[in-house]
């Protein structure tokens, strides 16, 4: 459904985030979420933060709309066109078609799409993608080194490529550890051969209780380091870790969980970061500064679009040797000495 | 021989109809009022003004008014405020009408089809698959895709009828479970090579070919809406003028008398569920083949059909399981949906408010006594406006 | 004059019996099902290699029980054979009474053991038995409570399709109140009140305004989803640190009992809600079948006119039953947030209210049977979830369909037609 | 009669349902130690009046006075406390409950059920009134006669001084009726008052001390127990009624319906029809007599094809229809008037016209292909309304708006409006008033005279006597004997209780109510 193009730019969201630099511009940046909505504690929310950062940094106007159903994507993108947006950021692969159609119809507007890139690039669309397998590889290596039981675990919110890429990288990191150290650390919840693993029933990124049950299953099989890749439902893993009496730790994905999930800080050894906010801010800035290009952005360890977060409270528990190894691995990945399949 | 009912009987019927309309209007009004209260009490910014209610009442009332008026005028504008809005409402209404007709038919056979969701999912899968995977000449392609979707919906519904007829299993349980299975099936299919876009691994089917999409009439209004209206006409004929409808209504009202009169109750149950599923499947087809705001249909993906199966229940209930009523109820709720989207983007009022309104409207219509108690001029009709298993 | 005729019919008619059509159908479909599963298992069995190991304790359990390794091939084949035998017994109709029950039990055990063994054989991980039980309980707890709510309502003649809505409002209210007060007790009380209030809406509209009860249930579910969703979006989400940070619920360890190996920690080291759920089953049974109130509840659900003629206030009893049911639905709903220490999210109950409704119907409106059906569903769901982590050859999406398929098979093949209380869903106008 | 003066007075009672006045300023006096019969055709308002007395309905006008003090009952509990007990026209027993549970319902005592005390109470009451019942028997397993006994014990459990028996005998065997009369006698001699409602004039004349007749909600007069049946019938209906059906002797032809060795199980698997053989010939009426629940319903269901027999064969005009479906038996020329009209006979929300084509809705001339021919359906309805004197404003009214007798006329009209080989009519006049009975009986006889084989199932001996050419008595699923309709009532009564013909003829019959004539 397309609401009539009568709106004035949104102000409510802006005021809560801090006011822009003096001389607020009438440049309008807009964002369309996917079904998860901007409160998903995950990629919609992080992308939204990117737009808000751009707003305070550049003094621009913003506007956003949440999608409730798949079928409303096109209408929602169109309503942003109708609102005279200068740049429109859409979040998620599911908006790929709607974004493409809108971009083709409106060559004057800049578009950016998070977690998606077109096979045949469009002139006015920038894909923002992230090779999270790279930091997940490091996380897997770290997990293997930390495990006392010789078993580590992972689970996903749904078998989407943006999810399984983490799980796969993680398993490769563990395998690399085994290879280097001659150990036999096992991964529960992901099978690299079948590319299948443990997922929350109902493709549910918000079902924390279901995620908790799944994490409990992993732990019952001896997993003591867990990488949950399930958006907000990843909290289930943190809870299981927190209730385990120190036996289990759980990582976090997308952002640095030590900061965003601070009540669980003591069980988060590290996080697999995906700097969507930075990428979004950069894309908006480029459009604002008329330096927009359609080259696909791929977040890598190299360009810090993805990263392994600091160890924070676990600084002391991780041996210097491991830290050094991980630092070296990171360098090797950047250099291409080690390739992570994704 | 004059077969007219006595004059006062006819007058009573007319009066009843008038009261039913008044009750429905009253229900909508009451629902909007409750919605307004809800908006005010759940908005901390507005509520904070109420601290000054006695010193500066205009602050509280002004804030409330701004909030409510803003939301509702956006709702109205989004639903009927412009030709484009009307077209968007029709877009939303088409699948609701189709699925509502399906649920209504089942109601009239005494069956409670909670499974429209699953049937719509299969309808969308089949229609989308034909739409993107096959290449056929224009009109034929659309027809085949529609038929495929309707057929799959019919099969998914028919399975329930079969299980119920053969084993006596309660259709409520079976349809609930079939919904979950349909959703999981879609999730699985989307990751199989047949449904993946070449060279990609996102769970997003290829876009349907233009030849399989419903032609656009104006804005978001597409031929699918007309198909829904035609479906309503067919359902009317089927139920009121055909032997199948006769049997469905008889079985729904008194299965035992129907059996004694030689009707095949098990067979009728299966046929009814298949027809019901076919219509729900048609709703899925609307989502799969109906061009959206950008004149392009949304590709098959999880959540494509939204919660149409559950919305259809309320549509059928409000429409008293009758085709005309279902069309009107579908338009009303379609308007609430498209208006709700406008309300969200223009007035920052969560879309969930239209769900609340939808539930409240049906609730009040179902209990006319409440409406007449609260709005003195409105008198309750003698026959309640909602039906369950009644013919 | 006295009754001396030898002819008066004062004893139940003692008739020759044959198998009723329904019983025959149930027997044949059960038997056929066993044969199919047995054959499937045998076929799968020949491809089994290696041992299947069953870990009796969880990895981090305080007391470690041994891990049992069962040889895959023979165990699967023996299980297949047992299932086939039981199936043949059912189909042939040679089994009666206790033999039939034993055969069914053996077949059920063999089916579970056989398939899990097949799935676990030759895998790098062992199947965690204790966690299977613990997960079953966690999943079953809200279902049991929801089903009990339905048992109370429907035995009084009020169809309750709105369990889902009761769950949802209770989950929301409990989470919010818990977050504000930081008190589990306050949260549970609030959850119960929410469940009861939704029950009151059900009662008001069905008993007073005679609204079709199925219709009403559907609408109340929509209302609950809309209401919680709206207030969540508008009020709770923007203030989630104050309004949506659920306090942790602690486990209450029952001394001695919790030391029993394997089941002790599962059954006797649980949160208050789990204990409440399982205590509620006998309590509801007792209330319904052993008290004045229960007798009246069942009478108004079965034959309200009869109850009326002996001076029972039909509407009042129905109100009481629906409100009492609300208590259990409120507890069940609270489990989703408070009971699992999880913050509220929209539609957090993900259809569990409907599953509880299914358990109620499958359990034929009887509290104990309904609870068993809830546990059955919990068991299969947990099994499916657990098998995902074993790297079985079955795609995870198929595994996740398992509980729903199993329910359809159970209700179609084993249970069939079930009889609701006669006046269930019929408003009382007298 | 040893009781105080006073008694119970109903003064000017009026009860309206909407605009319809069911009871219209009725005065009635009931004295201790009398059996007061209340007569009236269906819908006269008898039950309504009694429900007012029992506190189930609130009168719009009028007053109830007991022993001089005015009462204002708002629920049955108060009426019970004032000494009123009632056996209702329809069973007020909770089927899945035991006898003891039914008896204790509403007067349970403590919070936790004292089942032993309740059992004890059932035994005591049973002994006291010589109506023993097993306190632990579940109601739905009991034969209707015993269920009625439980109802009576329920009414007596409160030591009520005023008892209302609303048609308690409709479901009893002649022997059970005798027993009930004896109990009523005994209660009367204890000084209690009984209001006895029945449609069986024979019973009225046997026990009544006084008779009050109601019509259309009003009292139309009193009668003495000595009044003849014809006089009573005329008072009830308001016109002279011919209680005997005029019919020629049958001229039976070829057997049309032949049943051999039929064995049928009920839904629970009990074998309720056990090796039944009979035939019905063209132009004759075979009556199946028997107490309700002796397999008649299942037998008829099997003939129609609603249930499949376990053994045996059924042929219709030489064609085997043992395993035919209802569709096939109907098409083969079987007409069927079901026992339970409301459950099996018609579809309540459907119009009269629709109900008149219920079993031929998909056939010519009422349908062409998938399309219904509404004009033809209407034509059919208008013609049948005329022919069968169906009193309805419009054939487009829902059948539910008709009175019981007219509903039954619709059902019969539907069945008789096509050529039949056999007509199976179960309890065709149950709950129908005298005027309509007359009409229905005449139509059945004329169908017989057309050469149709008529199989009539009835529990009413009066009806059996009136219509039968031969009488087949069924007991517990077996044929006790096939006898002539002239067989004495007592003998038929004993046969209905399972006594073979020879023994029944020889049995001495105690009892006092054989004073009819
Ligand atoms: N609850 C009610 N609502 C409306 N009409 C009613 C109600 N109860 C009874 N009536 C009508 O009142 C009239 C009197 O009914 P009542 O049951 O008292 O008759 P009755 O004399 O007992 O007949 P029967 O011999 O068939 O038992 C009937 O026309 C009946 O349809
Ligand atoms: N529920 C009701 N509400 C309003 N009017 C009713 C109701 N039930 C019956 N009536 C009216 O009461 C009158 C008597 O109905 P009823 O069915 O008792 O007829 P009846 O005298 O018993 O006829 P019959 O002897 O043929 O059964 C009819 O005019 C009918 O329309
Ligand atoms: Mg009547
Ligand atoms: Mg009566």
TrEMBL record, chain D:
UniProt cross-references to PROSITE patterns, sorted A to Z: ABC_TRANSPORTER_1, ABC_TRANSPORTER_2
InterPro entries, per database record: AAA+_ATPase (IPR003593), ABC_carbohydrate_import_ATPase (IPR050107), ABC_transporter-like_ATP-bd (IPR003439), ABC_transporter-like_CS (IPR017871), P-loop_NTPase (IPR027417)
MF GO annotations: ATP binding
Pfam family, one: ABC_tran
Keyword Protease set for record: no
Recorded superkingdom: Bacteria
Name of the protein: ABC transporter ATP-binding protein
Organism: Propioniciclava soli
């Amino acid at each position: 459904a397309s609401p009539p193009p009568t709106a004035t730019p949104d102000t409510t969201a802006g005021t809560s985030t801090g006011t822009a630099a003096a001389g607020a511009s009438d440049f309008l940046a807009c964002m369309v979420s996917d079904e998860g909505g901007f409160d998903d504690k995950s990629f919609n929310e992080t992308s939204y933060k990117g737009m808000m950062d751009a707003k305070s940094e550049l003094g621009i106007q913003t506007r956003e709309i949440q999608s409730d159903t798949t079928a409303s994507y096109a209408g929602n993108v169109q309503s942003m066109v109708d609102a005279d947006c200068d740049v429109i950021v859409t979040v998620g692969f599911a908006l790929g078609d709607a974004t493409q159609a809108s971009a083709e119809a409106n060559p004057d507007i800049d578009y950016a799409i998070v977690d998606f890139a077109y096979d045949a690039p469009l002139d006015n669309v920038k894909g923002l993608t992230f090779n999270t397998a790279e930091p997940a590889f490091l996380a897997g290596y770290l997990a293997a080194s930390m495990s006392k039981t010789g078993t580590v675990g992972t689970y996903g919110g749904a078998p989407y490529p943006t999810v399984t890429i983490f799980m796969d990288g993680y398993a490769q990191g563990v395998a690399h550890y085994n290879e280097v150290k001659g150990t036999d650390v096992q991964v529960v919840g992901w099978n690299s051969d079948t590319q299948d693993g443990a997922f929350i029933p109902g493709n549910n990124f918000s079902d924390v209780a279901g995620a908790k049950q799944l994490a409990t299953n992993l732990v019952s099989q001896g997993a003591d380091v867990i990488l949950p890749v399930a958006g907000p439902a990843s909290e289930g893993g943190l809870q299981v870790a927190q209730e385990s009496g120190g036996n289990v730790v759980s990582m976090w994905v997308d952002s640095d969980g030590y900061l965003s999930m601070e009540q669980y800080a003591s069980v988060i050894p590290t996080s697999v970061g995906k700097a969507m906010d930075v990428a979004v801010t950069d894309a908006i800035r480029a459009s604002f500064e008329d330096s927009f290009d359609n080259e696909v952005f791929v977040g890598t360890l190299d360009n810090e679009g993805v990263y392994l977060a600091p160890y924070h409270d676990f600084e002391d528990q991780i041996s210097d040797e491991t830290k050094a190894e991980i630092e070296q691995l990171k360098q090797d990945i950047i250099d291409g000495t080690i390739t992570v399949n994704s | 021989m004059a077969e007219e009912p006595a004059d006062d009987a006819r007058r009573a019927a007319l009066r009843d109809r008038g009261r039913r309309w008044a009750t429905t209007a009253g229900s909508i009004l009451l629902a909007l009022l409750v919605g307004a209260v809800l908006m005010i009490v759940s908005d901390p910014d507005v509520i904070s003004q109420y601290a000054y209610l006695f010193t500066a009442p205009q602050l509280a009332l002004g804030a409330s008014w701004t909030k409510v008026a803003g939301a509702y005028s956006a709702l109205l504008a989004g639903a009927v405020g412009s030709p484009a809005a009307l077209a968007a409402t029709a877009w939303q209404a088409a699948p609701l009408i189709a699925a509502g007709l399906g649920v209504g038919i089942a109601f009239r056979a005494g069956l409670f089809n909670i499974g429209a969701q699953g049937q719509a999912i299969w309808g969308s899968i089949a229609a989308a698959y034909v739409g993107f995977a096959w290449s056929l000449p224009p009109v034929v392609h659309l027809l085949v895709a529609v038929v495929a979707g309707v057929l799959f919906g019919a099969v998914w519904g028919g399975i329930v009828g079969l299980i119920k007829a053969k084993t006596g299993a309660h259709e409520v349980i079976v349809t609930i479970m079939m919904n979950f299975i349909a959703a999981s099936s879609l999730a699985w299919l989307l990751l199989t090579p047949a449904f993946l876009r070449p060279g990609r691994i996102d769970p997003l089917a290829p876009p349907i070919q233009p030849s399989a999409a419903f032609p656009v009439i104006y804005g978001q209004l597409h031929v699918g809406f007309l198909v829904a209206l035609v479906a309503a006409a067919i359902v009317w004929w089927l139920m009121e003028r055909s032997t199948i409808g006769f049997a469905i209504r008889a079985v729904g009202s008194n299965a035992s008398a129907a059996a004694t009169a030689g009707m095949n109750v098990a067979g009728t149950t299966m046929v009814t569920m298949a027809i019901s599923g076919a219509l729900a499947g048609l709703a899925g087809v609307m989502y799969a083949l109906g061009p959206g705001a950008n004149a392009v249909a949304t590709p098959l993906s999880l959540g494509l059909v939204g919660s149409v199966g559950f919305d259809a229940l309320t549509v059928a209930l409000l429409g008293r399981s009758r085709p005309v009523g279902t069309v009107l109820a579908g338009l009303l709720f379609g308007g609430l949906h498209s208006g709700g989207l406008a309300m969200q983007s223009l007035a920052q009022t969560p879309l969930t408010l239209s769900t609340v309104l939808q539930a409240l409207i049906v609730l009040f219509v179902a209990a006319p006594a409440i409406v007449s108690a609260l709005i003195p001029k409105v008198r309750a009709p003698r026959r309640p406006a909602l039906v369950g298993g009644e013919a | 004059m006295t009754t001396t005729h030898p002819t008066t019919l004062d004893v139940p008619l003692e008739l020759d019996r044959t198998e009723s059509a329904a019983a025959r159908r149930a027997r044949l479909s059960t038997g056929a099902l066993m044969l199919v599963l047995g054959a499937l298992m045998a076929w799968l069995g020949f491809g089994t290699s290696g041992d299947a190991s069953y870990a009796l304790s969880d990895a981090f359990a305080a007391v470690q029980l041994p891990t049992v390794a069962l040889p895959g091939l023979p165990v699967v084949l023996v299980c297949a054979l047992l299932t086939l035998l039981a199936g043949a017994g059912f189909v042939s109709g040679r089994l009666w009474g206790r033999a039939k029950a034993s055969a069914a039990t053996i077949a059920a055990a063999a089916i579970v053991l056989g398939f899990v063994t097949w799935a676990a054989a030759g895998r790098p991980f062992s199947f965690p038995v204790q966690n299977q039980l613990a997960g079953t309980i966690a999943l079953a707890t809200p279902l049991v409570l929801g089903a009990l709510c339905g048992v109370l309502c429907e035995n009084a003649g009020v169809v309750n399709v709105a369990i889902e809505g009761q769950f949802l409002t209770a989950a929301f209210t409990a989470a919010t109140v818990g977050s504000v007060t930081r008190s589990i007790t306050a949260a549970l009380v609030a959850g119960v009140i929410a469940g009861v209030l939704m029950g009151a809406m059900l009662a008001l509209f069905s008993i007073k305004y005679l609204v079709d009860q199925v219709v009403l249930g559907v609408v109340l579910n929509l209302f609950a989803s809309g209401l919680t969703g709206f207030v969540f979006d508008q009020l709770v989400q923007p203030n989630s640190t104050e309004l949506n940070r659920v306090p942790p619920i602690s486990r209450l360890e029952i001394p001695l009992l919790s030391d029993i190996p394997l089941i002790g920690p599962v059954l006797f080291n649980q949160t208050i809600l789990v204990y409440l759920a399982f205590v509620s089953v006998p309590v509801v049974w007792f209330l319904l079948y052993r008290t004045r109130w229960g007798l009246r509840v069942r009478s108004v659900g079965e034959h309200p006119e009869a109850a009326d003629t002996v001076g029972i206030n039909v509407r009042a009893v129905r109100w009481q039953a629906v409100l009492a049911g609300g208590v259990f639905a409120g507890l069940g709903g609270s489990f989703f947030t408070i009971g699992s220490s999880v913050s509220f999210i929209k539609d957090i109950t993900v259809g569990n209210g409907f599953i509880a409704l299914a358990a109620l119907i499958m359990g034929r409106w009887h509290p104990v049977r309904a609870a068993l059906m809830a546990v059955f569903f919990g068991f299969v769901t947990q099994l499916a979830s657990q098998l995902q982590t074993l790297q079985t050859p079955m795609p995870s999406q198929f595994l996740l369909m398992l509980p729903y398929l199993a329910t359809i098979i159970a209700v179609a093949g084993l249970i069939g037609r079930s009889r609701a209380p006669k006046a269930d869903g019929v408003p009382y106008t007298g | 009669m040893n009781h105080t003066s006073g008694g119970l007075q109903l003064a000017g009672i009026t009860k309206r349902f909407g605009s319809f006045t069911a009871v219209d300023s009725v005065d009635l006096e009931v004295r201790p130690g009398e059996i007061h019969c209340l007569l009236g055709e269906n819908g006269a308002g008898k039950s309504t009046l009694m429900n007012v007395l029992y506190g189930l309905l609130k009168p719009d006008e009028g007053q109830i006075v007991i022993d001089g003090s005015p009462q204002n009952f708002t629920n049955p509990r108060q009426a019970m406390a004032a000494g009123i007990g009632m056996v209702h026209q329809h069973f007020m027993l909770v089927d899945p409950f035991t006898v003891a549970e039914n008896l204790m319902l509403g007067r349970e005592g403590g919070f936790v059920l004292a089942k032993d005390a309740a059992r004890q109470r059932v035994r005591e009451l049973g002994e006291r009134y010589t109506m023993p019942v097993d306190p632990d028997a579940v109601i739905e397993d009991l034969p209707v006669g015993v269920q009625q006994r439980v109802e009576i014990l329920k009414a007596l459990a409160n030591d009520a001084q005023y008892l209302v028996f609303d048609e308690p005998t409709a479901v009893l065997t002649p022997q059970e009726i005798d027993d009930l009369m004896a109990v009523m006698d005994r209660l009367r001699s204890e000084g209690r008052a009984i209001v006895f409602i029945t449609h069986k004039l024979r019973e009225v004349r046997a026990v009544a001390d006084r008779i009050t007749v109601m019509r259309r909600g009003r009292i139309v007069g009193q009668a003495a127990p000595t009044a003849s049946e014809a006089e009573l019938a005329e008072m009830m209906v308001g016109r002279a009624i011919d209680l005997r059906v005029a019919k020629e002797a049958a001229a039976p032809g070829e057997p049309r319906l032949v049943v051999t060795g039929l064995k049928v199980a009920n839904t629970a698997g009990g074998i309720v029809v056990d090796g039944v053989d009979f035939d019905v010939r063209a132009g004759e009426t075979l009556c199946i007599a028997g107490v309700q629940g002796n397999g008649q319903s299942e037998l008829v269901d099997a003939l129609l094809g609603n249930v499949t027999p376990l053994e045996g064969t059924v042929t219709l005009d030489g064609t085997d229809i043992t395993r035919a479906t209802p569709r096939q038996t109907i098409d083969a020329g079987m007409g069927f008037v079901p026992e339970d009209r409301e459950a099996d006979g018609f579809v309540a929300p459907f119009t009269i016209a629709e109900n008149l084509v219920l079993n031929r809705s998909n056939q010519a001339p009422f349908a062409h292909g998938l399309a219904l021919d509404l004009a033809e359906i209407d034509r059919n309805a208008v013609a049948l309304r005329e022919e069968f004197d169906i009193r309805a404003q419009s054939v487009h009214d829902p059948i539910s708006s008709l009175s019981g007798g007219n509903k039954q006329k619709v059902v019969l009209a539907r069945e008789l409006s096509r050529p039949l080989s056999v007509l199976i009519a179960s309890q065709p006049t149950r709950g129908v008033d005298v005027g309509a009975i007359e009409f229905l009986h005449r139509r059945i006889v004329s169908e017989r005279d057309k050469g149709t084989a008529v199989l009539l199932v009835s529990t009413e001996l009066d009806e059996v006597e009136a219509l039968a050419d031969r009488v087949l008595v069924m007991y517990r699923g077996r044929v006790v004997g096939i006898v002539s309709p002239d067989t004495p009532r007592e003998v038929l009564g004993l046969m209905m209780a399972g006594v073979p013909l020879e023994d029944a003829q020889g049995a001495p019959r105690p009892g006092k109510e054989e004073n009819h004539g």
